[in-house]
Design a protein that fits this description.
The protein has about 600 residues and is mainly α. It is about 60% helix and about 5% strand.
């Protein structure tokens, strides 16, 4: 009889194989998480636009030449071409459109943005607290109504919130000194992409870098200068590559000068009076603005101890979130930037706010890590909260006082109670099953309160801010939204490329229909390229607009087309020629369109 002896090598091989399979399974699960969440949480596939701004970016995705060739000269004195300069978002979306088409490209882009946010966050929390905390980060990010809504339109906040979330996670990542340059490079690339996606990205990137530099100066000055140099080199490299990509897919190389010009133009007093609401009372009617300060308070409560004993990753997330929110509050209430009154702007904060929430929950449930099964309890409870909300997704409207204040205070007080009542040692959690029940109740109270604050509709519209639509982000339907998106995005192909540079196009709608056609008219810059009065009678104001702009083409848009013939007759002094007609349909949406050439202004022999 032969006795087989186990050698160290024979024992190590199955263990290594098991680790490889675990790693592969874990990687596939993380990469598939957005798709899984889409079906499990019944995430709304698109979001309502509310303003023409999202579709003012869509046209640069589906037909950038339409804007650059038609309006570059006409818009030169204003900042109206700034949407075309947001290359950090547009290049990615345009490439996806060219490869996959309109709707598949839209969803591929959102899938990519979701991965940019969740993959670094998962790795960060996995290293800080273990796999369950990594899953918890994925659940919190992918179930956030704010992130879901941001990812649901072509407004660049969908890119900024992902870039900033990923960058903060990369900068907070605990790692060896040999791997630090790689994480730093990743953070630098994401921060640069955020900067060239939207003005909010510039502010958030600046705040993040300042916090990182200050914390490194205080705690770890070694290689600080070389790290700063690396960030600068990465930023320059990514910018150069992005400029080349912009030239290839958008047709424009320089997006830096237009960005600077837009910032200067929008900073004029005449513009800030238009776009910024000086009265602060509107904020009291927007409950979701209580979520960031409440989350920050919860986080600092759970980290309450001597600052020098707080681990650097947790401290960096806490400081980054606090400074970003404070900066937005200062710019909104003590300066003239509409950082909080527009949900398209404030949404860019939410990725880091979500990470702050994960840190708070991970800290108060740390004793559960001693039990192999119970350590998964926080992630399971966090997933159960949005699923329970979907069973009856109806939250009444309320203001900051008293309902909003009570909910925000309740979340903070629960965090305080858990911080004070948590077992002092891990072993005590083994003997105290009550803590699992208490932790579950606390998570429901904290995350449930924040969810209600987030989805509660405004009791009244806060100034110029459109309804956020956060209440329908989970379990809501996007069928009609998709129909409008497809129909609107088809307009550039119906109009076709201009025959020459500077061939302007204006739009004409029936009276009182701007709200209904807010997305289609955004494809050609909405109000600026819209005749002031409705079809079919041409007024003196319309004639003055035509004389000033001298458009070669006029696009008529309506739900029925009933007034188009009369409108064509009223244009007879401009020698109109009907070029083409169509009814653009998708699902339940039908858009009647006529394209008219105005011979008075068009160059001869161009059609």
């Amino acid at each position: 009889m032969t006795v087989m002896k186990n050698t160290p090598g024979s024992q190590a091989e199955p263990a290594a194989r098991q680790r490889r399979w675990t790693l592969v399974t874990e990687t596939c699960a993380v990469l598939a998480a957005p798709l899984i969440a889409f079906f499990v949480l019944r995430i709304r596939a698109m979001a309502p636009v509310g303003l023409p701004d999202p579709s003012m970016h869509t046209i640069y995705i589906v037909g950038p030449s339409q804007m650059f060739q038609r309006y570059a000269a006409a818009f030169s004195s204003t900042a109206r071409m700034r949407e075309g300069a947001q290359a950090g978002f547009l290049v990615i979306a345009r490439v996806a459109y060219l490869i996959f088409g309109l709707l598949p490209g839209f969803f591929v882009t959102r899938y990519l943005f979701a991965l940019i946010a969740i993959v670094p966050a998962y790795l960060l929390f996995r290293r800080l607290y273990g796999r369950p905390a990594g899953v918890m980060a994925i659940v919190v990010l992918l179930s956030s109504p704010v992130l879901i809504t941001a990812w649901g339109t072509d407004y660049p906040d969908c890119a900024v919130v992902s870039y900033i979330t990923g960058a903060v996670a990369c900068l907070a990542m605990p790692c060896t000194k040999w791997r630090r340059p790689w994480w730093l490079a990743g953070a630098g690339a994401l921060l640069t992409m955020a900067i060239w996606s939207h003005g909010m990205g510039i502010m958030l990137a600046a705040a993040t870098v300042v916090v990182y530099a200050a914390l490194r100066t205080w705690r770890d000055r070694e290689h600080l200068i070389s790290d700063a140099l690396e960030l600068a080199i990465v930023a320059l490299g990514v910018t150069a590559v992005l400029m080349l990509a912009s030239k290839v897919v958008l047709g424009e190389f320089d997006f830096i000068v237009p960005t600077l010009k837009a910032a200067l133009y929008l900073n004029r007093p005449s513009q800030t009076r238009i776009w910024h609401t000086a009265d602060r009372q509107w904020a009291l009617y927007v409950p979701y603005l209580l979520v960031p300060p409440a989350t920050i308070a919860m986080l600092w409560v759970t980290l309450a101890r001597k600052v020098r004993t707080i681990p650097t990753p947790q401290l960096f997330i806490a400081l980054a979130c606090t400074v970003q929110v404070a900066l937005f509050a200062f710019l909104q209430f003590f300066s003239h930037v509409q950082t909080l009154e527009m949900h398209f702007f404030s949404s860019t904060l939410w990725g880091v706010v979500c990470m702050a929430l994960v840190v708070a929950i991970a800290e108060i449930t740390r004793p559960l890590s001693a039990r192999p099964l119970l350590r998964w309890l926080p992630a399971i409870v966090l997933l159960a909260v949005p699923l329970a909300y979907e069973l009856d997704a109806h939250v009444p409207a309320f203001t900051w006082w008293p309902a909003g204040a009570v909910l925000a205070a309740a979340a903070v007080l629960v965090a305080c109670a858990m911080r004070l009542g948590a077992p002092r040692h891990r072993r005590s959690s083994v003997r105290g099953p009550w803590f699992a029940l208490a932790a579950s109740t606390a998570i429901v109270a904290m995350s449930g309160s924040l969810l209600v604050l987030t989805v509660a509709p405004s009791e009244r519209l806060p100034g110029v801010d459109p309804s956020s639509g956060y209440a329908e982000a989970l379990g809501g339907s996007a069928t009609n939204l998709i129909d409008w998106y497809v129909v609107s995005a088809d307009l550039p192909s119906f109009v076709s490329n201009p025959a020459y540079n500077g061939e302007q196009l204006l739009m004409w709608l029936p009276h009182g229909s701007i709200g209904r056609f807010i997305e289609p008219i955004g494809m050609f810059h909405a109000g600026f390229n819209l005749l002031p009065n409705g079809l079919p009678k041409l007024t003196a104001a319309d004639a003055a607009d035509l004389a000033h702009r001298r458009p070669a083409e006029l696009l008529l848009i309506s739900a029925t087309g009933a007034l188009f013939s009369s409108a064509l007759s009223s244009l007879r002094t401009y020698r109109p020629l009907l070029l083409r007609t169509a009814v653009i349909r998708h699902g339940t949406v039908a858009l009647h369109v006529w394209l008219i050439l105005l011979g008075t202004f068009a160059r001869p022999n161009t059609r």
